[in-house]
Structures are given as C-alpha cells and as structure tokens.
Amino acid sequence: MVYTVTLNPAIDYIVSPAKFSAGEINRYQKAVYGPGGKGANVSLLLSSLGVRNRALGICAGFSGGEIVRLLEERGCETDFVRMPQGHSRINVKVCAPDGEETDLNGDGPDTPPEAVEELLQKLDGLGEGDTLVLAGSIPRSVPGDIYAAMLRRLEGRGVLAVVDATGEALRCVLPCRPFLVKPNSDELGELFGVEIPDVGTAKEYAKLLVREGARNVVVSMGDKGALLVGETGQSLFCRAVRGEAVSTVGAGDSLVAGFLYGYGLHGTLQGALQWGVAAGAATAFSKGIASGDAVKALYPRAGNPSPI
Ligand SMILES: Nc1ncnc2c1ncn2[C@@H]1O[C@H](COP(=O)(O)OP(=O)(O)O)[C@@H](O)[C@H]1O
Ligand SMILES: O=P(O)(O)OC[C@H]1O[C@](O)(COP(=O)(O)O)[C@@H](O)[C@@H]1O
C-alpha cells in the first residue's frame, strides 16, 4: 500500500487572467481549484490510476476540511490529523497569457508537536511492501528534519521511501537511504549553490546525492524531461513529451505518482521513468492534476528512457 504524507496541504486556486501585471487590478473569469500540496497530488493521481493509497497529513480549519472532502470526492482514502486552530493554506497560482506562472504558496498554519506526534503514530503500522511518500514543504513550526525523523522511525521495516523536498529537509534524509528523491533542476542547483543549465550538469550533481545516500535520484527538468541516476551507476534520460503546456502546477507530483505506477507495473526504473514523464506531461497539458486516463493516453508518446 502507498501512503503519502502532506504536512502542509493546500487548496490550489488556479486563475488565468487575460492580462497580468503586478501592482494593478487583474481580473479573471473562471478559477479552477482543487486539493493540493505535494503528497495530496501524488495520492490524487495514484487513485485515478487505480493504485490504492492513503493520503495522510495535517490540516486545519475550513480549508483543511475542504481539502479532505475534495480528496475523498475524487476517490482518495484519507487519514489527516485535524487541528482545531488556524486554517490550511490556499495557494494561488496565476497563469499569465504569455505562459508564465506565478505561485503564491503560504507558510501553513501553526502546527504544534502534538499534531506531529499524532501523525507519527499513524506511520507505526507501516511495514514490508509499503511505500511512503514524504512530499512538500514543512510548516515553519515543525522541525526541519521531520522527514528524516520519520524515516529513522521506520528503519529496518522494509518500507520504500520516496522524498520530494528541498534544502536541508532533503539533505538530511539522504543518510536514511531513501529509494527515491525527486528534486527539480532548480532545487538540485540550490542544494549545491550552482546553476543546472543542462542534463550533463544535472547528472554530475545527482551523483553527489547518490553518494550521500539516495538509492535513486530523479531530476525533473520541466519541458526538457527527466534524468534518473541510480545507485548502481545507471543513468537514464527521458525526453519530455512535446505539447502545449496549460499549467505545470503539480507536474512534479504527477511525475512521482507516474513513476510509482510504472515501477509497480514493470518493476524497472526505465518503465517507471517513462510513466513518470508521461504523467508529468499529462498534468502540464491540463489545468490541475491530470486524470489516470489522460496519463495512459499520453504514455505511448513518451519516448523510451535511454542511457546518458
Ligand atoms: N511544458 C512541459 N511539457 C512537457 N512535459 C512537461 C512540461 N513541464 C513539465 N513536464 C513533465 O513533468 C515533469 C515534472 O515537471 P517539473 O516542472 O520539472 O517538476 P516540478 O513541478 O517539481 O518543478 C518533467 O520532468 C516533465 O517530464
Ligand atoms: O509545499 P510546497 O513546496 O509549498 O508546494 C505546494 C504546492 O506545490 C504543489 O504541490 C505543486 O507541486 P509541483 O508543481 O512541484 O508538482 C501544489 O499543489 C502546491 O500548491
């Protein structure tokens, strides 16, 4: 069974004004909104692909209730810790007519240690055959090494760990030997204080994450595609599917969901990467997270990942 954890879920509110200039009134006609936050997005797409999973996390207030309701409405099993104070964030995504996207992502509500402890206890039942996806930002009030603490708590239980995090939260999980980490190229660059202009540079720095403990690293590179570097020295690149991007919000989370779906289907990193790239594109080509059917329809257009 796959479990996703979203410490900082959100309602994603996506608007596409006819013009967008900072400092001015920008009017839009219709908004698309849905449950968001990285783990929640992974759960949404896995459910739509028919992979049984449970979305865990911490939420608060009216928006937290709505996030859970929307997830369940779309077929997800949920088990969120609900906090009595504050409210989960509403992240506004502005898609400008020139294709540029602006994200306004909140900090999230104050999250006391008791809420975190309640969540940790929910993880105690995981064991052999389970996959745990830890994804997204950590609210300020929660210790920055919480993902590493979760993985240490599960050590020796045979749980496959996937981490989509940034900065120190990512770095400190590496000694726990996660099965997969998925920075995008900007996040990988930030970790080392460098720019990642091309696949060759991405490979060089992904290898360093493997040396620090990651078993596999997927570097997502937007409309270029995605690179995988594995602990066996294997590196594969899969070019992005060509098409017109509508909104790339959730493309990275979709890549993670597609990767897990493909890994379950084929049992190979190559198959996993190809499904991941198809899923990322399917979401980039739609507003909001793509449906499982859209991912399956796009899969034949995703090229075979090849050694690089
Ligand atoms: N414009 C696009 N066209 C085709 N595929 C895309 C596009 N943007 C993203 N993708 C696919 O989705 C994956 C994840 O997107 P990316 O933007 O790198 O992740 P994140 O959302 O984490 O920044 C990419 O590796 C790519 O395969
Ligand atoms: O937790 P963070 O890093 O603030 O990110 C949250 C945002 O990222 C998303 O999960 C989308 O992530 P990706 O575009 O990286 O896949 C949104 O749903 C959400 O608003």
TrEMBL record:
Every copy of the Carbohydrate kinase PfkB domain together lies at: 11-290
> Which pathway does UniProt place it in?
Carbohydrate metabolism; D-tagatose 6-phosphate degradation; D-glyceraldehyde 3-phosphate and glycerone phosphate from D-tagatose 6-phosphate: step 1/2
- Keywords on record: ATP-binding, Kinase, Lactose metabolism, Nucleotide-binding, Transferase
Q: Which Gene3D superfamilies match?
A: 3.40.1190.20
Q: Name one Pfam family in it.
A: PfkB
* InterPro entries tied to this protein: 1-PFruKinase, Carboh/pur_kinase_PfkB_CS, PfkB_dom, Ribokinase-like, Tagatose/fructose_Pkinase
Quote one Gene Ontology molecular function term. 1-phosphofructokinase activity
EC number, UniProt record = 2.7.1.144
PROSITE patterns associated with the record: PFKB_KINASES_2
Q: What catalytic reaction does the record list? A: D-tagatofuranose 6-phosphate + ATP = D-tagatofuranose 1,6-bisphosphate + ADP + H(+); beta-D-fructose 1-phosphate + ATP = beta-D-fructose 1,6-bisphosphate + ADP + H(+)
Do the record's keywords include ATP-binding?
Answer: yes
What the record says about family reads: Belongs to the carbohydrate kinase PfkB family. LacC subfamily. Belongs to the carbohydrate kinase pfkB family.
> Which NCBIfam families has this protein been placed in?
1-PFK, pfkB
Q: What does this protein do?
A: Catalyzes the ATP-dependent phosphorylation of fructose-l-phosphate to fructose-l,6-bisphosphate.
Q: What is this protein called?
A: Tagatose-6-phosphate kinase
List the taxonomic lineage. Bacteria, Bacillati, Bacillota, Clostridia, Eubacteriales
